[in-house]
Amino acid sequence: MNLLIMGLPGAGKGTQAAKIVEAFQIAHISTGDMFRAAMANETEMGLLAKSYISKGELVPDEVTNGIVKERLAQDDIKGTGFLLDGYPRTIEQAHALDATLAELGLKLEGVINIKVDPSSLLERLSGRIIHKKTGETFHKVFNPPAGDYNEDDYYQREDDKPETVKRRLDVNIAQGEPIIEHYRAQGLVHDIEGNQAIDAVFADIEKVLTNLK
């Protein structure tokens, strides 16, 4: 089974990816893992990626696409199938993936799209606060400090501030929508309601994937 998983930051994509890989015994291909492995193994594309990363530059699409192609060409994929996680991030990468799969004789069988309302993701992602003295982490809604706490004793990292989180979500929505539509036109997208308990989300995914097998 060859799959792609998509979802906005905070939608629980990583959690569900781990559950899918364990339940269906397929190779989990995440962008970060791929880059680390390619650089550690000093593959042609790994060395090229390293040359950009070491200079603090963004890795160009053609290198990222090349690293994905190297990984998908490995023997374990033909035996088990794969779950791509974190790629493609742009519509250009989606087109490159189509070409790579065709060249390798592989076929994408499903796209799991975990849908969560962006406003609830904003609350989920921007609620983290950190105690100034102890460094202990809390969440304003899901794990608040005990009693009537003094907000002056806590701070938020730049990444957790609502305006930063909203910008990140907006960028992800703008980049992700054309990719979803690209695969929806191919009849591959399965929308999963992500605003429910983790096990309930996975139960919905499991039903979809069992029917695909």
Architecture overview:
- By secondary structure, the chain is of the alpha/beta class.
- It has a single domain (2-211), classed as Rossmann fold (3-Layer(aba) Sandwich), CATH 3.40.50.300.
- Helices cover 52% and strands 16% of the residues.
- The chain has nine helices and eight strands.
- It has helices at 13-24, 31-40, 44-53, 61-72, 75-80, 91-104, 118-126, 162-184, 198-212, and strands at residues 2-7, 27-30, 82-85, 110-115, 128-131, 137-139, 154-155, 189-193.
- The strands form two sheets. The protein has a five-stranded parallel beta sheet, with helices on both faces. The protein has a three-stranded antiparallel beta sheet with strand order 6-5-7.
- A hairpin with a 5-residue loop joins strand 5 and strand 6 (137-139).
- Helix 2 packs across helix 3, helix 3 (44-53) runs antiparallel to helix 4 and helix 4 (61-72) runs parallel beside helix 6 (91-104).
- The model has no long low-confidence stretch (mean pLDDT 92).
Which secondary structure elements does this structure contain, and how are they paired or packed?
Layout: E1 2-7, H1 13-24, E2 27-30, H2 31-40, H3 44-53, H4 61-72, H5 75-80, E3 82-85, H6 91-104, E4 110-115, H7 118-126, E5 128-131, E6 137-139, E7 154-155, H8 162-184, E8 189-193, H9 198-212
Parallel strand pairs: 1-3, 1-4, 2-3, 4-8
Antiparallel strand pairs: 5-6, 5-7
Helix pairs in contact: 1-9, 2-3, 2-4, 3-4, 4-6, 7-8
